[in-house]
Amino acid sequence: MRHVLVTTIGLKYQLDQTFDKVFCLFAQKHCKTIITLSILMLYFNKQGYTQIKADNLGRSDLPKSIPFQGNFYKGYKWKDRTGNHLLILSNSYHPWNEKESDEAVDEGDLYVAHFQETGSDLSRTWRIHDYVRNCPVDMFLYFIDQGIAITDLDKNGKAEVWIMYKVSCQGDVSPVTMKIIMYEDGQKFAVRGSTRVRLSENNYEGGEYTFDTAFKNGPSVFREYAKGLWKNQVTENWKKKP
Predict the structure, then answer these.
(1) How far is CA 209 from the centre of its chain?
(2) For the chain, percent helix, then strand, then coil, each to nearest 5?
(3) How many CB atoms lie within 10 A of CB 3?
(4) Whose CA is closest to 160, among 124, 187, 191, 179?
């Protein structure tokens, strides 16, 4: 079976032979062409790869009454069938300070907070917190922008919120821990695994991942989307933080 990789909204999707035939209609040889984003989105909407329109927020756009930890990184707002929503991503890094400790260690935190409008207020409904503590070597702790998305893949009118990040403390070139956390209507879904590193010309290590029970029992379209995210980011680039 031949496959085509399509990049849109920062993601690579592996499409089956059916769409490959559609590509052939647009190209006379080798089935290679560039199809406009509008055509791609028509296909994705038909298949269920639907994006909910989310507006980007800056730090100054946030209501003053909304608390969050760390330093503001990204913010989004959107509306679905359950109401109005707000998402805040933030981080906090604590590099070694020789005045505070004799041992050179780094620490850091990643935070995600989701709020939903209830009447005239915004109430926090779920949060993500991951961290590295007392790291004397290299700290890998950051959000993967290409893995942050608001979707409605199962077309039930309820947004799925996708967050992808790395979290590790290591002093070698072994695979780095990577995670995808997704929430839909308060239910958590998780993918956990590691990046893939090249050890020699034909030898690689890592790249495996595991779906949690929620993903295994959830709609297949969730797993397919997560697989696309993972494949797009699995190769380690040795970036440590933003």
Answers:
(1) 14
(2) 20, 45, 35
(3) 12
(4) 187
Residue 110 · residue 74 · CB < 8 Å? no
Residues 23 and 77 in one domain: no
- Same domain? For 140 and 212 the reply is yes
Is the same domain home to 25 and 142?
no
Query: Is 15 found in the same domain as 134?
Result: no
In terms of domains, do 149 and 215 share one?
A: yes
Indicate if 37 and 56 belong to the same structural domain: no
CA 203 – CA 205 distance, rounded (Å): 7
Phi, psi of 227 (to 5 degrees): -60, -40
| pLDDT single digits (tens) 19-77 | 333 333 333 444 433 333 344 344 444 444 566 899 999 999 999 889 899 999 999 99
Q: What does R_g of the chain's alpha carbons equal in angstroms? A: 20
Q: Which of 128, 133, 158, 153 is nearest to 143 (CA)?
A: 128
Model's pTM, two decimal places?
A: 0.78
Q: What SS3 state is found at 132?
A: strand
How far is CA 10 from each of CA 102, 146, 147, 233, rounded to the nearest angstrom?
43, 5, 8, 11
Task: Report the distance separating Cα 224 and Cα 182, nearest Å.
Answer: 13
Question: Residue 67 falls within a domain, yes or no?
Answer: yes
Direct distance between the N- and C-terminal alpha carbons of the chain, in angstroms, rounded to an integer:
39
pLDDT digits (tens, 9 = 90+) for 116-142: 998 889 999 999 999 999 999 999 999
